[in-house]
Specification:
about 50 residues; alpha+beta; three-stranded antiparallel β-sheet; 1 helix
Length: about 50
């Protein structure tokens, strides 16, 4: 069985729209949090969440 593009998210995800329209993705695990403003990463998160 393969989930491919529809693989479930494995960590909590928050998509933020900041003042000025900048979009950021924040993910969190047991040991760390990660904030990204990279458009490719944000698009991957959006596809995974949809």
């Amino acid at each position: 069985m393969s989930l491919g593009e529809r693989a479930p998210l494995t960590a909590p995800l928050t998509l933020l729209t900041l003042p000025g329209g900048t979009v950021a993705a924040y993910t969190e695990s047991l040991r760390r949090g990660s904030l990204s403003r990279d458009p490719a990463v944000i698009e991957k998160c959006r596809r995974g969440y949809a």
